[in-house]
Specification:
It contains twelve helices and 14 strands. By secondary structure, the chain is of the alpha/beta class. The protein has two domains: 220 residues, P-loop containing nucleotide triphosphate hydrolases (Rossmann fold, 3-Layer(aba) Sandwich), CATH 3.40.50; 104 residues, no CATH class. GO terms for molecular function: ATP binding; ATP hydrolysis activity.
Length: 362
């Protein structure tokens, strides 16, 4: 049983209640840009998504999908950068929209981000130390200059950087991979309960990707910090993740254990993503959609069914009429597709139950 949280050494009833609540919860969250949900000019970036991150299980969950699938919007909502159009986002049982003062600082400390662009994080007029010293001062992480230096050195060493080769330099004097690892070190200093890594290797050379991903994996395994890894790259998602969420046009279409989802995808969209991975054989065709056992169905633009219906090789009439619920296709695998309607239906709120492991992937 977890110990109640304390405030200045005094256990509070509210703190005790927060101890038993998940770290982050999205409850039926929708995010619309450019107008209301039914407006012609509206873009529904996230549509009725529910997700729970317990925060006490050291796992890596990948969120994958093509551009426009809602991955970054999901990350921004989790970090409190934007507000939902509808639905609720909870931090330890409290609505993020109502947080203020000490509770908001606690939230900002517990949920840390590693961004896509390792260049824009740094001010070129400041040494890289600035990225590390500002949060130390803001969150009062050190009592003296010596403590501050030791904290920075420890964080840098955790991600494979030497302090004497990093501190005191300007951003242009470091490689893209080094800059990205400094941002990981910055997040680590906060002792977060969750790291949200949004495309952290998409803007660095291929030779550096393994190094950065290994740094994240080391953080996950040694410090027991869960990581939400946002990516469009199924290859890296497979190698670093314990579990995976596949998104398409703002909805979760498949979720489960990464081995199960990648080796035996159940949703036609996930199958399309996997088939689009180029093979090291020029004679082997790739990037072609599978032929399915679908029906001859006219898919109107304004239908209210499955969002993948207009691209799906297995589309059926019911796919256009109604949106499918998630179906449990295995012990820890679900797909939002009528092809599996003979399997038990799973409420969206329970999808997160598939994203729990007893130990990190080795």
């Amino acid at each position: 049983m977890a110990k109640p949280t304390t405030d200045q050494g005094v256990t509070t009833a509210a703190g005790s209640a927060r101890t038993h609540a998940p770290l982050i919860e999205l409850r039926n969250v929708t995010k619309v840009y450019g107008g209301r949900v039914l407006s012609r000019n509206a873009t529904v970036a996230l549509d009725d998504v529910s997700l729970t991150v317990a925060g006490d299980t050291p796992q890596i969950i990948s969120v994958v999908g093509e551009s426009g699938s809602g991955k970054t919007t999901l990350a921004s909502l989790l970090m409190g950068f934007i507000s939902p159009t509808s639905g609720t986002i909870l931090y330890q049982g409290s609505d993020v929209a109502s947080l203020g003062g000490a509770r908001m600082r606690e939230f900002r400390r517990d949920v840390q981000a590693v961004f896509q662009d390792p260049f824009s994080v740094f001010n070129p007029f400041y040494r890289v130390d600035h990225v590390l010293t500002v949060p130390i001062a803001k969150f009062r992480l050190a009592k003296s200059r010596a403590d501050r230096h030791d904290l920075m050195v420890s964080a840098l060493e955790t991600v494979g950087l030497r302090a004497d080769e990093t501190l005191g330099r300007y951003p242009h004097q470091l490689s893209g991979g080094q800059r990205q690892r400094v941002t990981v070190a910055r997040a680590l200093m906060m002792r977060p309960k969750l790291i949200v890594a949004d495309e952290p290797v998409s803007m660095v050379d291929a030779s550096l990707r393994a190094t950065i991903l290994e740094s994240l994996r080391t953080v996950n395994q040694t410090l027991k910090v869960p990581i939400l890894y946002i990516t469009h790259d199924l290859g890296t998602a497979y190698h670093v993740s314990d579990h995976i969420l596949v998104m398409y046009r703002g909805t979760i279409v498949e979720a489960g254990d990464v081995e199960s989802v990648i080796s035996a995808p159940k949703h036609p969209y996930t199958q399309l993503l996997i088939d689009s991975i180029p093979w090291p054989d020029p004679q082997r065709p790739w990037g072609q959609e599978r032929t399915g056992r679908g029906e001859k169905v006219t898919v109107p633009e304004d239908h209210h069914g499955c969002r993948f219906a207009d691209r799906c090789p297995a589309v059926m009439a019911r796919c256009v009429e109604n949106a499918p619920p998630p179906y449990l296709t295995g012990p820890d695998h679900a797909a939002t597709c009528f092809l599996h309607a003979e399997q038990p239906a799973l409420p969206k709120e329970r999808l997160s139950e598939l994203l729990t492991v007893s130990a990190p992937k080795s």
